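User: Reviewer 2 asked us to show a designed sequence for the structure in our supplementary figure. I'm pasting the structure tokens here. Could you produce the per-position amino acids so we can include them in the response letter?
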């Protein structure tokens, strides 16, 4: 028995080194992207600190499952999710995103605050904001001289903000360009619910309907800016991939080749002891995996 314990103790540093290698490799990879002018990172963003903070979150032990989130996912998916976070200059320490494991695949999903931070840093965007329209409030729009839908007024009733999903009539987002031109996007609650029905985040949507409604309308409003932006392809790819991660299982069900296509679009991070590979059980994604409740880290108290 003592020999088994001793062997377990000897294996602990090795396992820790493997995990720390992921952090080091990802940090080096993203830093190289910066040095090669492939992406721009804000001066006040520390790649190493952000990845290290995420690492600590991912290695926290779930006492119910007796394991950490990092140990629940493949090394390659952990590395890619950390890379997506760092490319967008986001931090779980600031509640700008969280990590979710579907089956054994880890993904990074932006929070409401994270989406705002990313879009505000994009070329040509001066500011953006979103609000929820509650039952009983007066919300008016009009067409401007360019024939575009424009914000007119929103008469707020603070007593109407009950926090209940059933009391939300819709949400809107305004994106303002550097030249002062504003673009309005409005979604009814039915449209928002349709979007939610396609995602894997039902628990979060039901718990935080107000913030998730804002996040949904921001994502829709930002699509045109994201895909017509002059920002780097690596950043845009990470932004789009992170936005779509919550719909990942549905896309795999509809298109079994998605997993292969997605890997081809990612910057690889090489590990000597384990080369990236596509596993048959991922391509043949089973129906029961689609029904599993995802495990998340970084969104324990307030994912927004």
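Assistant: Here is a per-position design you can include in the supplement:
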């Amino acid at each position: 028995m003592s020999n088994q314990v001793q062997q377990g103790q000897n294996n602990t540093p090795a396992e820790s080194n493997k995990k720390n290698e992921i952090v080091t490799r990802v940090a080096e990879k993203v830093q190289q992207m910066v040095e090669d002018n492939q992406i721009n990172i804000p001066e006040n963003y520390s790649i190493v600190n952000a990845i290290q903070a995420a690492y600590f979150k991912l290695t926290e032990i779930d006492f119910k499952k007796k394991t950490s989130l990092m140990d629940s996912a493949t090394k390659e998916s952990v590395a890619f999710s950390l890379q997506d976070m760092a490319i967008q200059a986001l931090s779980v320490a600031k509640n700008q995103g969280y990590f979710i494991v579907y089956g054994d695949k880890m993904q990074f999903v932006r929070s409401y605050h994270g989406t705002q931070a990313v879009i505000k840093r994009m070329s040509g965007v001066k500011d953006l904001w979103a609000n929820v329209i509650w039952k009983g409030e007066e919300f008016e729009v009009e067409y401007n001289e360019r024939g575009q839908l424009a914000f007119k007024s929103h008469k707020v009733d603070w007593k109407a903000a009950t926090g209940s999903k059933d009391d939300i009539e819709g949400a809107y987002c305004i994106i303002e360009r550097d030249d002062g031109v504003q673009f309005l996007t409005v979604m009814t609650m039915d449209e928002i619910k349709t979007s939610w029905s396609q995602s894997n985040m039902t628990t979060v949507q039901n718990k935080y309907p107000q913030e998730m409604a804002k996040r949904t309308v921001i994502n829709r409003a930002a699509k045109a800016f994201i895909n017509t932006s002059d920002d780097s392809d690596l950043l845009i790819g990470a932004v789009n991939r992170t936005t779509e991660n919550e719909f990942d299982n549905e896309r795999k069900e509809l298109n079994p080749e998605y997993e292969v296509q997605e890997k081809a679009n990612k910057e690889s991070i090489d590990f000597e002891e384990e080369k990236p590979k596509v596993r048959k059980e991922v391509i043949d994604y089973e129906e029961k995996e689609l029904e599993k409740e995802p495990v998340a880290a970084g969104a324990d108290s307030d994912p927004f």
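For the response letter, you might also mention the following. The longest helix spans residues 2-35. Confidence is low (pLDDT under 50) at residues 1-11, 248-267, 271-293.
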